[in-house]
Design a protein that fits this description.
This protein is of the alpha+beta class. The protein has helices spanning about 50-70, 160-180; strands at about 10-15, 20, 30, 40-45, 50, 75-80, 85, 100, 105-110, 115-120, 130. The strands form 4 sheets. Strands 1-2-3 form a 3-stranded antiparallel β-sheet, with no helix packed on it. The protein has a 3-stranded antiparallel β-sheet with strand order 4-10-9, with no helix packed on it. The longest helix is centred in the C-terminal third of the chain and has 19 residues, at about 160-180. The protein is globular, with a radius of gyration of 18 Å.
């Protein structure tokens, strides 16, 4: 049985399954407060319903902020063809769930409601994570800190890992030819 390190008391109990604590991955995280069985609906991702135009505007604003400050968190999820969900709200505890290259949960859209489901059994004290599914286009802007054995170093959806690995090989090859 895997033992997870004893962490300080939870900052906030979210629901019967999870609580918020400081995360070794990044900032605050969401942790299992009890065993969560595979397939369990853990938490809903909630927020403000916005149209695609507003979503793009907010995304561009966050990008500009990140260029100035070096960081800006994006909590916007694609919901359907016409709307997105901006989860950057204090009442949305699910916004604190971190990315992992070996996630133990996944976000599922059920009739325009976003729910996090357990991909496998999650043990008490284990950080709950999912694959953010970021596109490879701006991978350098999103370093990954999950620290898992499979970590590819960037927050990029698993489906794009082969392309990312080819890109990284090409970049390292170009660097080595310049220094030779």
């Amino acid at each position: 049985m895997v033992k997870f390190p004893k962490l300080p008391s939870p900052v906030k109990q979210v629901n019967p399954f999870c609580e918020i604590r400081r995360s070794p991955i990044h900032g605050m995280g969401v942790f299992a407060s009890r065993t969560i069985r595979k397939g369990t609906r853990i938490i809903e991702y909630v927020g403000e319903l916005i149209d695609k135009e507003e979503s793009n505007r907010r995304g561009l604003d966050l990008f500009e902020e990140s260029k100035k400050t070096g960081g800006a968190s994006v909590y916007i999820f694609d919901l359907n063809e016409t709307h997105d969900l901006d989860g950057n709200k204090s009442y949305n505890d699910a916004r604190l769930i971190n990315h992992s290259c070996e996630p133990n949960a996944e976000m599922v859209n059920e009739d325009d409601q976003l729910w996090l489901f357990a991909l496998r059994e999650i043990l008490p004290g284990e950080e709950i994570t999912f694959d953010y599914g970021y596109d490879i286009e701006h991978f350098l802007d999103h370093p990954c800190r999950c620290g898992t054995d499979e970590c590819v170093g960037f927050i990029v959806s698993r489906e794009q890992w082969p392309k990312l690995k080819r890109t990284l090989r090409k970049r390292s090859g170009k660097k080595s030819t310049k220094t030779a």
